[in-house]
TrEMBL record, chain A:
It holds the Pfam family FecCD. The keyword Transmembrane applies. InterPro entries: ABC_transptr_permease_BtuC. The chain crosses the membrane at residues 27-50, 82-99, 111-132, 138-157, 169-190, 217-236, 257-279, 299-317, 329-346. CDD domains: TM_ABC_iron-siderophores_like. The lineage of its organism: Bacteria, Bacillati, Actinomycetota, Actinomycetes, Streptosporangiales. The keyword Transmembrane applies. Keywords: Membrane, Transmembrane, Transmembrane helix. This is FecCD family ABC transporter permease. It comes from the Bacteria. Residues 1-21 are annotated as: Disordered.
UniProtKB/TrEMBL annotation, chain B:
Belongs to the binding-protein-dependent transport system permease family. FecCD subfamily. The chain crosses the membrane at residues 71-89, 101-118, 124-142, 154-173, 199-218, 243-270, 310-330. It is a multi-pass membrane protein. Gene3D superfamilies: ABC transporter involved in vitamin B12 uptake, BtuC. It is found in: Cell membrane. The keyword Cell membrane applies. This is FecCD family ABC transporter permease.
């Protein structure tokens, strides 16, 4: 790996970027390769599982469905699950990258800053206390939880004279996350049936979500992804500091607010779909920055593409190693991602923000 | 304020002293309240009589066999977690460097769950937890060693290890049957219910042995917080001090987890709360330990009474109280 190059967003504010076509082309090609990898992993996700199927069966299932159990499995389970995995992975990777850039905090992560915990509390309330099982209903609880958490964490972490240092924000996130997790566990503790039903969701799982759920959550995920990917340029300028960003013509408050909205959409929908997954949002942007450098216009799309590769890969491995059962994707993500993360943390200075 | 006594002198901050004294008072008050109240109220004079062995049989049973050991375990475990957290936060110069965040408590849990699933007795579970904690600490330290251990790298490696171990814990939970899973989950959120003297005494012994070590490294640790080179220039042998502190911190964390399960957030929150109350520039060991003791015993009291007859695990309450209080302090923070 080459050392992270520092592109200078300041030079791009006025006029054309300096001639660095070669690097731009390399990065674009890399993104295409990553996309190709994502397609491959998705196809593998449809084909592999408790029962392996040829890819032709997958196409037949949609083009010429014959009502066989194979086709039903593919149409009702494998394809929605894979699509959900792509959406959730992209959401978490992008949310992590957005948060790390916005807070200039290498430890920012939907889990560490308490946002997934907020969303999880919302879902726990909806499912455990009110018995609402419709995803289109409880996703709003997740949004409310995520928005509430980010509002509280941000106002705690950014208040005061210095406008919030990185450790202060992380502390605020952990403190708020602690309270939310405690409330969720207290709710689950009251009723052991709910605990039994929700313990799989609580460790993070893509299983058990129907095509219907995936479809209903898709608009939220797509909206969040589209909004998030547009924020690369203003975030680049904000990375120089609020004053420099303002001088470059960035609407600081609006950029912050839009980023917060994107993060809320992404984390809320992802948590409602797959449980409070963490670590992907922390590790993937770190790894991406180590390769592509600091330019957010590349970091954001790369994170959004690489994260679902990790998530789907983890999901497939989890399905294969424990046939006919499976290991939850949250467990597999940490099992696969954590050693890589440790290696990165050990072998080189993690690309600083 | 400097206190001189012959050749020795000590710097004492009045505010730290006041906070420490106040925390000590609160700890005593909470302990008395926990022993005295409940379904069967024992008046305060009767507690002393029961402890001295001169009370009524009922009072003696309730005080000596049920409530006192539980309170003692809470005080000791809380102090051990607070102290361990203070040591590691000081070593890593980072609030996130506390043992519950860098995988040590998770490692202890893994050891404990393995023992639960294997159907071990309480002693085996405790041993598994201690072993898990020590092994994790050694691995995290070894993995972050690269021409010395740098605080931030240790935190990152620790977070990775934490994720891995939490995954292992969830895997073990979902693989096991619902009864084992429920037992392990109750232990995992941390609980003080049913703790007897045989839980309290190992922690007391460990604290008695390790407290002098902690007192010995407390001052050099403050120096090392300013940077290794600065500390060396002040005549401090950095590596031995750090090694002693790490051993003490790991053992305290392991013993405490073995006794009460991985009560999350006490180690993280206590030093931060203590530091903000004392307005000290760095981490303070004594007030952190006392803060841990107060936090844990008060939380246990609330966990027993709040939703009675449903008993909440104390870890849930420490998280709620510690988190809310920390958020409250952060609100008007000046750092």
């Amino acid at each position: 790996m080459r050392p992270a190059e520092h592109t200078e967003p300041a030079t791009e504010a006025g006029g054309d970027p300096p001639p660095r076509r070669g690097r731009q082309v390399t990065l674009a090609a890399g993104l295409l390769v990553a996309l190709g990898l994502l397609v491959l992993v998705s196809l593998a996700g449809v084909a592999l599982g408790a029962r392996a199927m040829p890819l032709t069966a997958a196409f037949d299932a949609f083009l010429a469905p014959d009502g066989s159990s194979d086709h039903t499995v593919i149409r009702e389970l494998r394809v929605p699950r894979t699509l959900l995995g792509i959406g959730v992975g992209a959401a978490l990777g992008l949310a992590g990258a957005l948060m790390q850039s916005l807070t200039r905090n290498p430890l920012a992560d939907p889990g560490i800053l308490g946002i997934n915990e907020g969303a999880a509390l919302g879902v726990t309330l909806a499912l455990g206390l009110f018995g609402l099982t419709d995803p289109t209903v409880y996703v709003w609880f997740a949004f409310a939880g995520a928005a509430g958490a980010s509002l509280v964490v941000y106002s705690l972490g950014a208040a005061g004279r210095t406008g919030g240092g990185p450790v202060r924000l992380a502390l605020a996130g952990i403190a708020v996350g602690m309270v939310f997790t405690a409330m969720s566990s207290a709710i689950l503790r009251i009723d052991s049936q709910t605990y039994d039903r929700m313990r799989f969701w609580l460790t993070g799982s893509l299983a058990g979500q129907t095509a219907d759920t995936a479809l209903r959550l898709a608009p939220f995920l797509v909206a969040g992804l589209a909004l998030g990917l547009c924020l690369g340029r203003p975030l680049n300028m904000l990375s120089l500091g609020d004053d420099a960003g303002r001088a470059l013509g960035v609407a600081v408050g609006r950029t912050r607010a839009l980023t917060a909205v994107a993060v809320t959409l992404l984390c809320g929908a992802a948590t409602a779909a797959a449980g409070p997954l963490w670590f992907i949002g922390l590790a993937v942007p770190h790894a991406v920055r180590a390769v592509v450098g600091q330019d957010q216009r590349w970091v954001l799309p790369y994170s959004a593409v690489v994260a679902p590769v990790l998530l789907l890969g983890a999901d497939i491995v989890g399905r294969l190693i424990a046939r006919p059962g499976e290991v939850q994707v949250g467990i597999m993500c940490a099992a696969i991602g954590a050693p890589i993360f440790i290696l990165l943390a050990r072998r080189r200075r993690l690309a600083a923000l | 304020m400097n206190v001189r006594l012959g050749p020795w002198s000590m710097r004492l901050a009045p505010r730290s002293l006041a906070v420490t004294a106040l925390l000590l008072l609160i700890a005593c008050a909470v302990a008395v309240a926990a022993i005295s109240t409940g379904e069967f109220t024992v008046p305060v004079p009767d507690i002393l009589a029961a402890l001295a062995g001169e009370g009524t049989p009922v009072a003696e049973l309730i005080v000596n066999k049920l409530r006192a050991p539980r309170v003692a375990t809470g005080l000791l475990v809380g102090a051990a977690f607070g102290l361990s957290g203070a040591i590691f936060q000081s070593l890593t110069r980072n609030a996130l460097g506390s043992p519950d965040f860098i995988g040590f408590t998770a490692g202890a849990s893994t050891g404990g769950i393995l023992a639960v699933v294997a159907g071990g007795s309480a002693a085996v579970i405790a041993g598994g937890a201690l072993a898990g904690c020590v092994i994790t600490a050694v691995l995290v330290y070894a993995l972050s060693y690269r021409r010395g251990v740098q605080g931030y790298r240790l935190v990152l490696v620790g977070i990775g290890a934490n994720a891995l171990l939490l995954a292992a814990n969830s895997y073990l939970l979902t693989r096991s049957n619902i009864y084992d899973a429920a037992t392990a989950a109750a232990w995992l959120t941390g609980s003080l219910s049913g703790r007897g003297w045989d839980h309290a005494i190992p922690v007391a012994v460990a604290l008695a042995l390790l407290l002098p070590l902690c007192a010995y490294v407390a001052r050099p640790l403050r120096m090392i917080e300013m940077g290794d080179d600065a500390a060396r220039a002040m005549g401090i042998r950095v590596e031995p001090v750090r090694a002693v502190a790490i051993v003490a911190g790991v053992l305290l964390c392991g013993v405490a987890t073995a006794a009460a399960g991985p009560v999350m957030f006490v180690a993280l929150a206590s030093p931060q709360l203590a530091r903000r109350l004392t307005r000290s520039p760095g981490v303070t060991l004594a007030s952190s330990a006392l803060m841990g003791a107060v936090l844990l015993t008060a939380s246990d009291l609330i966990a027993q009474r709040l939703l009675a007859p449903v008993q909440l695990p104390v870890g849930v309450v420490t998280a709620a109280i510690g988190g809310a209080y920390l958020a409250f302090l952060l609100r008007k923070d000046r750092y």
